[in-house]
Design goal:
The protein is mainly alpha-helical. The protein has helices at residues 6-21, 28-51, 62-88, 95-113, 120-138, 143-175. The longest helix is centred in the C-terminal third of the chain and has 33 residues, at 143-175. The relative contact order is 0.17.
Length: 179
């Protein structure tokens, strides 16, 4: 499930979902929103377990693993730098849009590493979510709208990619197609 990426997509999608739901007042509505996010995440992970072969993604060759680690290391370094700079500049509202852009862009080299051109889709969608969040902020939109826009688009993008992966594997298994 994690070798195929579905586990990561589901869990990080849930994180973005929590950001989106933070735009709403607490209470029962927020509790329901969080429960929905938990259900989607759990459903994706169970579907991956059910439909993806245990070898999905296979073991990484050393060069691929090294490149993957380099890309993710740089991504996390940039995320930490964004958080520090935005916090020091008293602009925490910019953290989600800038992080979404970095996360989106990190999918571009991963598409090459994993030979999965479809990873360009979440790359574009997350970068667009970040750009849209920046546009909301630049037009003096409220911080809650920035979080909602970035979080919702990012969550749906990652969950959509997870669904696409599971459905593709299920289709391939059902029709004897090599993915």
């Amino acid at each position: 499930m994690f070798k195929s990426g579905v586990g990561f997509l589901a869990l990080f999608g849930f994180g973005w979902w929590l950001l989106a739901t933070s735009a709403f007042d607490g209470g029962l509505a927020r509790l329901v929103e969080v429960a929905v996010g938990c259900a989607v995440t759990l459903g994706l992970m169970l579907a991956a377990r059910r439909f993806l072969p245990s070898s999905a993604g296979g073991p990484f060759p050393a060069a691929r693993r090294r490149r993957f680690n380099q890309i993710n290391g740089l991504q996390w370094l940039l995320i930490v730098a964004i958080a520090v700079v935005c916090a020091r500049a008293a602009l925490p509202v910019l953290i989600p849009p800038l992080v979404a852009i970095v996360v989106g862009l990190h999918f571009l080299p991963l598409a090459a590493v994993f030979e999965q051109p479809r990873l360009r889709v979440p790359a574009a969608l997350l970068a667009a979510a970040g750009a849209l969040g920046m546009a909301v902020w630049l037009t003096n939109g409220p911080d809650t709208t920035v979080r909602l826009v970035v979080g919702l688009i990012s969550a749906l993008s990652l969950w959509g990619m997870a669904i696409w992966t599971v459905m593709g594997a299920a289709f391939a298994a059902e029709h004897g197609v090599k993915e």
